[in-house]
Amino acid sequence: MANQEDNFKKVISHAKEYGYVFQSSEIYDGLSAIYDYGQNGAELKKNIREYWWKAMVQLNDNIVGLDSAIFMHPTIWKASGHVDAFNDPLIDNKDSKKRYRADVLIEDYVGKLDSKIEKEVKKATKRFGESFDKEQFLSTNQRVVDYKEQGDAILKRMGKSLEKEDLADIRALIEELDIACPMSGSKNWTDVKQFNLMFGTKLGASAESAMDLYLRPETAQGIFVNFLNVQKSGRMKIPFGIAQTGKAFRNEIVARQFIFRMREFEQMEMQFFIQPGTQKEWYDVWKEKRMKWHLSLGLGQDNYRFHDHDKLAHYADAAADIEFRFPFGFKELEGIHSRTDFDLGSHEKFSGKKLQYFDHETNKNYVPYVLETSIGLDRMFLAVFSNSLQEEELENGTTRTVLKLPAVLAPNKAAILPLLKKDGLPEVAHEIVDDLKWDFNVIYDEKDAVGRRYRRQDANGTPFCITVDHQTLEDKTVTIRHRDSMEQERVAIADLKEIIHEAVDMKSWLKKMD
Ligand code: ATP
Q1: Is there a contact between 105 and 179 (Cβ–Cβ < 8 Å)?
Q2: Which atom of ligand 1 is nearest to the CA of 263?
Q3: φ, ψ for residue 149 (rounded to 5)?
Q4: Mean pLDDT of the region 238-260
Q5: Which helix (H) or strand (E) segment is 91 a member of?
C-alpha cells in the first residue's frame, strides 16, 4: 500500500516538475480538485482528444461531431433526472471530521479483496512456473474463490440498497465490514445522506430577473437536445452517432485523487441512436470497439478489465465500465451505457416537442434508443501518464526516469540537440528545427552535457533526440536516439521526417484497432 502511495506521489510531482499538471491557483494555495495543464500537459491532452475524435468521428461515416454550450435551459436537468437523482451517498467520520462517499468506502474494501486475489495469483505463478493455468487457479483455489464471492456479494448488496435508496443499509454494511476512516482509523460514522453534485449559478443582470442555472454535469444532454437538429440538417439515418468533447462540472464530495476525480473536468462522449430492440447488439459492439481503442495505445492488456454494473442508473438497462489499473488500483476509466429511450422520451415530455425518427423502411415513427460511450479526458490523461512513468535500472548500475508515452500522444516528438554550442552546430540544429516544425512539435535544447539532455528528454516523454555533431557538417547526417531502447543510429537529415512520421502517425496507431 505504501508503495502504491509513493508511486502515486511520484506521478503527481513528475507531472508538476515537467510542466504537465499544476494545482489551480497555486500561488493562492490552490483550489481543491481543480487543476491546470501546463505546456506539456496541454499538448498531451489535445493529442488524446484528437486520438478519440479521429477514432469516433473521422473513421465512422455515421458519427458526427457537436459542440454544444455549457449553459443550458434549467428544465433540461429536471428532464434528465439530475435535479432529483444526481446524488452521491455521503458519510462523515465524527472523529476525523473527514467526509467520504459511502459507496467508495465499500468499493475500496472490495478493491482490497481484489488485491489479495492478485497476490495469490502472483505467488502461484512463481510456484508453478510454466505450467500455471491462471483461469483454472481462479476458479478452483478455495481462498481466491472465497474472496471473489465475498466481493461480489458486497457489491450486489450495495447496488440493491442504492437502487432502493436504502441508506440505512449502506451504513449497516460499512459497520458490518468494520470499515475504518482511512485517515484516522476511527469507526465512528454518521448516518449516510444524499448530496446533489450539480453547481448552481445565475443568468441575468438583475437579481429579480436572474434565472437559476446549473453548470452542466455531463456533456450528454447537449447531444440529446440537439438530436433532431443534427438528424435533420445532416439527413442522418439510424443507426447514427453524435460525439462531443467538453467541460463538465461536479461538486464531488471526495476529491483527493489528483486528476482522477475533479470538480471541473472534460468528457468525451458519444451517443449512438438506434432502433428500439437492438440495444443488446450495439452494447456488445461498442464495448468491443472501445476496448480496442484503448488497447491500440499499447499500455498493456493486463491493465484493463470490464466491470458490469449491478446497480443501474435510472436511465440504463445495461452498463459496464472499462476499468484501468491506476496507481491506486483498478478504477473506472470509461462507461458504456445502454440508455434506452429514457433521455429523448423525457425531453419530449418536459419540452412538449416531438423527438422522434421517421423510419422510411417501416413507415413508422419512434423515439430512438441510445447507446452511450463516456470517458473522462483527464482520467485518460492520468491512465496514460501514470502508466508511462517508469524508473529503469540501467546496465551500468544507474537508474533513469523515463516517461514512455505512446509516441503518437507525446507532446514533443523530437528534441534537436547541438553537441556543442559552437562551430556552427547550433545553426544547423536550428535549420533542422525550422524544417521539422511544420510537421511536428519539436524543441531545441543546447543547455548542459548531451547525456543530461537525453535524460531530461526521457523524463519529458520525447520519443526522439536528434544530435548534431561535427560529422553533420561533413556529410549531413545526425544521430537519432530512441527514448525507449536508448539505441542510437546515424541517419541522413533528409530522412528524419519520414522516421519520425512513421513512429508518431495517428493513422498507423489507429489501424491497430482493426
Ligand atoms: P465515478 O463513479 O467515478 O464517480 P461516474 O460513474 O459518475 O464516475 P460517469 O457519469 O459515467 O462517471 O462519467 C463518465 C466518465 O467521466 C467517467 O468514466 C470518468 O472517466 C469521467 N468522470 C466522471 N466524473 C469525473 C470527475 N469528477 N473527474 C474526472 N473525470 C470524471
Answers
A1: yes
A2: 27
A3: -65, -40
A4: 93
A5: strand 87-92
What residues pair up with 358 in beta bridges, in sequence order? Answer: 365
User: Which atom number of ligand 1 is nearest to the Cα of residue 269?
Assistant: 14
With a cut of 80, say whether residue 311 has pLDDT above it: no
Amino acid at 260: F
How much distance in Å is there from the Cα of 376 to the middle of ligand 1?
Answer: 6
Q: Whose CA is nearest to atom 9 of ligand 1?
A: 335
List the strands of the sheet with 414-418, edge to edge.
442-444, 414-418, 464-468, 477-482, 488-492
Distance from Cα 374 to the centre of ligand 1, integer Å: 8
Cα separation of 21 and 36, whole Å? 6
Which one of 251, 267, 306, 315 would you pick to mutate in the ligand 1 pocket, going by the greatest count of ligand atoms within 8 A of its CB? 267
Rounded to the nearest angstrom, the distance between the alpha carbon of 460 and the centre of ligand 1 is: 28
Q: Among candidates 33, 26, 21, which has minimal Cα distance to 255?
A: 33
Return the H-helix or E-strand segment holding 266: strand 264-274
- Using pLDDT thresholds of 50, 70 and 90, give the confidence band for residue 164: confident
Does residue 1 surpass a pLDDT of 70?
no
Q: Are 38 and 44 spatial neighbours (Cβ–Cβ below 8 Å)?
A: no
Ligand 1 centre to CA of 68 (Å) is: 19
Per-residue pLDDT tens for 418-433?
A: 999 999 999 999 999 9
Instruction: Note the pLDDT of residue 2.
Output: 56
Q: Give me 209's grid cell.
A: 430577473
